[in-house]
User: Fold these one by one.
Assistant:
Number 1:
Amino acid sequence: MKDQLIVFDTTLRDGEQSPGASMTREEKLRIARQLERMRVDVIEAGFPAASNGDFESVRAIAEVIKESTVCALARANENDIRRAGEAIRPAARGRIHTFIATSPIHMEKKLRMTPDEVVQQAVRAIGWAKEYTDDIEFSAEDAGRSDIDFLCRIFEAVIEAGAKTINVPDTVGYNVPEQYAATIRTLIERVPDSGKVIWSVHCHNDLGLAVANSLAAVMAGARQIECTINGLGERAGNAALEELVMAVRTRQDVFPCDTRIDATQIVPASKLVSGVTGFPVQPNKAIVGANAFAHESGIHQDGVLKHRETYEIMRAEEVGWGANKLVLGKHSGRNAFRSRLQEIGIVVDSEDQLNHAFARFKELADKKHEIFDEDLQALMSDEQVTPDHEYFRLLASRFHSETGETPQAELTISVGGQETRTRSDGSGPVDAAFKAIEAVAKSGTELLLYSVNAITTGTDAQGEVTVRLAQEGKVVNGQGADTDIIVASAKAYLNALNKLHNKFEKLNPQV
Ligand code: KIV
Ligand code: ZN
C-alpha cells in the first residue's frame, strides 16, 4: 500500500491574494463545491479575521462542504484564532491553520519579536486553537529562509502543544529543489515525534520552482502538498495543483505515494477558477492549457495516430479534456436539464430558479444548437450572478457598427427596478456599450481588465467576458456569457457594478 499524499488547496485563500482575484461568497462556494467534487482533502476557505466578508465565506463553505476538511487561516494571536474557530464551527471536519514568521528578517523587521517570544506565541496559539478543534496546522512563515536549528526548536514545541500538521512554507519562492528537500529530510530526522505529524509543503513560484520544490519535498517525506488551481496566488503564484497531482500520478514508478484526486475534474476546475477570477490560462500551460494535448508537427501527429504513447504521457480525457460532450439540445426537456445540472454538481435553490434557468436554456438552444456542459456552467453562473433582484440588469440592447461609421450602443437597463434607456457611441461597440452604461451608472470606476474567451469551440460558441473594475480601492470581477460577445460584455460590466453596489450597500446601507 502506498502512502496517501494529502492535497490541501488554497485557491480560496492564497489564490485570492493575487491582485484582482477577489471573489464573492457565491463564487467561493461554487469553487469549494468543485474542489470537493475533485476530492481535495483540505480546502483552505479563507482568512476569517481579515474581514467580515471573509468570515462569512468561510462559514458558508463550512456549512455546505461535507467530504473535504474546511480550513481557516489565522495569525498566531487570540483574536484571529477565535474568528477562525467560529467560522469553521459548522464544518463536518474543520481545521485551524495558524502561522507565525520564523526567519531572522521577519522576526526582527516585521514582528519585532525575539525568537523566544515567537516560540512562546506559537505554543499559546495552539492552545487557543485546541478549544475549537483537534485538527491544527502550524506554519513557520518564511521557513525557506529560516535557521534550521530554530525550525527544529519551534516545531518540537508546537508538536508537543498539539499541532497535527507541520507546514514548511517557502513563502518568497527562494529555495531550490535539493536544498528544500534536504530541509524537509533534516526536520523529519531531527524533530522529536516527527513521525506523529504530517509534514506539509507550501511553495511559491517566484523562481518558477514551486512544483519542482514541492515534488522534491515529497520524495524527502512530505505527505501534504499545498497548492492552487492554475497556480493562482501571491505574486508569481503557488504550486499548481494540476501539475503536482498529475506528476505524482503519471510517475507512480518513482513516487512512494498517490493522491485521492478525481483527475477528470481538473479541467472543469481550471475553467471555473479562470472564469471567476478573469485570470486566463496560458495556452501552453501544462495539463490545463488549451494546447497541452495538441500535436502540431506532422511527425508527432503521425506518431500519435499510429500509437498514442509515442508522444503522449497522459490521456487528455484523464484530466477532464473532451468531457465537453454534447449533452443537451433544443428538444431537451426540463427533467433532462435538471438532471444534467445535478450530474455536473450545480445546485438550484428553488423551482422558480429552475424554471427561470430552463427558459434561458431554451433561448440559448435556439441560438446555439449544441449545448455542452461548459455552456450550462456559464448559463447557470450568469443565472446566479444576475438574478432578477440585482440593482443593474440588462433588459434589451441594440448595437450599430458599420465601415466608416462611428459604432453605437443603445441599451435598456433596469436600475434599482426602474427601466432606463441609454445610448452612446464609442471606438467600437464594446466601448460604446460601456460608455452607455456609465452614462446612467456614473460609477467613476477604472477598467483594469477586459477579456473574452470562447467557452466551447465553433463560431456559434458563447463568449465569456470578464471585466475587472476598481472603485475607491475596491477591485471586483464581473462575468457575462452570451453567443453575442457585445451582450456578454455589457452583462459582465453590469455584473461588476452590481458587486460594487452590493459591497457598498453592505458596508453602508444608506449609500
Ligand atoms: O506563503 C506563506 O507563507 C503562507 C502561509 C500563511 C502559510 O501563505
Ligand atoms: Zn503562501
Number 2:
Amino acid sequence: MPRYTFVQEEYDYMKLLRERIDPQNLEKLLRIPIPELHRWIADIIRVANPSRVFVNTGSPEDLEYVRRRAIENREEYPTKYPRHTVHFDGPRDLARDRLNTKILIPGGGEIPFVRTMDREEGLKEITELFRDAMKGKEMFIGFYCLGPRDSPFTIYAVQVTDSAYVMHSDNILYRVCYEDFVKYGDRIRYLRLLHSAGERDEHGWSKNIDKRRIYIDLEDETTYSVNTQYAGNTVGPKKLAFRICIYRGYKEGWLCEHMAIVGVKGEGDQLIYITGAFPAGCGKTTTAMYADTLVGDDIAMIRNIDGVPRAVNTEIGMFGIIDGVNPRDDPEIYRLLTSPETEVIFVNVLLTEDGEVWWVGKEGEPRKGINYAGEWWPGKKDETGKEIRPSHPNARFTISLKYFSHLDPRIDDPMGVPVDAMLFGGRDSDTHVPVEEAFDWVHGIITKGAALESERTKAVLEKAGVREFNPFAILDFLPISVGKFVELHLRFGRGLKKVPKVFGVNYFLRDEKGNYLCKKPYAKVWIKWMALRVQGVVDAITTPTGRIPVYQDLVKLFDRVLGEEYPEQLYEKMFMVRIPQHLAKVERIWSIYEKIPDTPPELFQVLREQKERLKQYRDRFGDYISPFKLDRR
Ligand code: SPV
Ligand code: MN
C-alpha cells in the first residue's frame, strides 16, 4: 500500500518541484534519490502552498540560516546574548493538547485510555486543515535520525514544517542526517513528520487554536500537527514520533520508553546503567542530573541484543522545564542557561526590555518585558484579578546535551548502553517508600511499571493531590492498549539472558503533618543504592512489596554521598511498610485493568500474590510495620 499523500491524482510533480523550489534548494532535495519523498513534498507544496522552500542539510550555513529565519520571522526574539533566543507559544498553546491528539486507526476502534479516530476521516480533515496553511510562508525540510546512526536502533525521519522555530529545535534536539538519506536513498525507511503553525496573529501566536490537531497515522508512520507551536505538539521527532516508535517496538518486540538513561558509579567506580520513567515534573531530570553520567533525559529505545537489554537515547538535546531552576538546586543547568556560550532557545519565559531572560527561580527580580501572554510588568493581573506569573510553570529551555559536563561518551555508541536496572517513579505522598527493589522482572513490571500512579502536580499543598493512573509514565503517548504494552514487557523479559533489576522510587513521600520526608539531593543516595544492589554488594530487607535498604547501608551512603547524618527515626518513618495504603492500591489497579480487555493474566496473578503477602504481614505485624522488625533475605 502506498503511503497517503495529499493529492490523489497523477500529475507532473517534478515540474511542480522545479517551479516552486529555487535551483539551489531543489538540487539539495534531488540529491536524495527517493521518488516517493519527492512526490510527498510536491503534494504538500501543492496543498499547503508555501511561498518558498528550504532544504536543511545540516551544514553549518544551513543550521545558521534556520536560526536566523526564526528571528526574522519573529518566531524567536534576540536577547542580550547572541546565542540565546526566546520563543513564545501564546497563552492558549502552552502545553501538549491531550484532547486533540489522536491515533488514526482504520474504522476508529475503541482502546481504553487512548484517543483514537477513524483514519480516513482524520486524513480528510487534516488535508483540509493544511490547505493554504503555509501561504506566504517558507517551508523547511529537515532530515533526522532517532538514536545513533548506523546502529540497529536508528530510526530515520523527515520533518516538514513552516516554523523555523520548530526546525531550530529539531536541529538542537536531534542528529541531522541528510547525508544518510543521500547515501541510502530508497533503502531508508523513514517517518514523515508534517507540521504547520497555521495562520499567526500579530503576536506571532497560532491563531486558529480551535482547529489545533495532532494526528498520528500508525499505518503510514506519518504525523500531522497544525495550528500549534508548543514543541510537545510540533517537534516531530519528539513526542509525535514517540507514538510511532512505541507501535513499531510493539510489533517488533522492543521497547520505546518515556525514560531517562543514566550511569551511576557503584563499587570500584563500575558504571551501572539505569533507565527511569517518571511522569512530567516527578524527578526525571533531577535523577538525570544527580547521576554520574547522562545518556538521556526523556525517551529511550531498548532492544534485546544477544540476550542483553541495551538502550539508546533517541535525542541529543534537552527540552527541559525551566520553572524553579536555581543555582543552589540545579547548579549545572543554571550555569549552562546563564552562559553566553550555550546555544539556548528559551520558551515562554520573560524577556525584559533590556534583553534579559528571566524565569521563576532565577536570581534577581523580574522587570517589565514580554512573556507568554504579551506585555508584562511587575504586578500585572489577568481579567479575574489574579497576578500573571512572569514566566509560565511549563516554561522550558532547549539545549544540546553536548554542554553537560557529565554527558556519557557512549551517547553515540551504536550498540547503546547495557540496562542494568529500570526504575519507575511517581508523585506519591502516602504509600511507597523512597526506594524499593522488586522481587523480579515480572513483579517489577507489574507492581512498579504497570501500576504507576502519580498525584497531579498542581495539587494544593495541604491536600493530597488527585492520584492519576499513569502506567510506565507513558499513558499520554500510548498508541496501543495498556494491556498490550504490559504484555510486551513480559515478552521482552522472557527473551533476555541478562534481566535488569526493577526499582520503584518515590521522592515525594510525606509525614503525617504533610511535610516531605526526602530532600531533593537524597535521590543521589537512592540511585547509588540501586547500583550497589545491581553489583550484589549490599543486602536488603524483604517486605511484602519488595526489598528495601538496610539502615546501616544508608548511613554509609548518606555520609559518603551527601556528607550528612541519617537518623534512625527518619529511616523508620521513610521505610515504614504501609499495609492499608498498599492494599488500597492493589484494589485500584486491579479495577482499572479489569476493564482493559487485553491485559495479560499474569498481571492479576501478581497482584493477587501481592495482596496475599500484604495480608500475611498484616496478620503478623499489624498495619504499619517498622523496617527494623523485618528480616534481611
Ligand atoms: C513531557 O511532558 O513529558 C515532556 C515535554 O517531555 S513535551 O515535549 O511537551 O512532551
Ligand atoms: Mn517527556
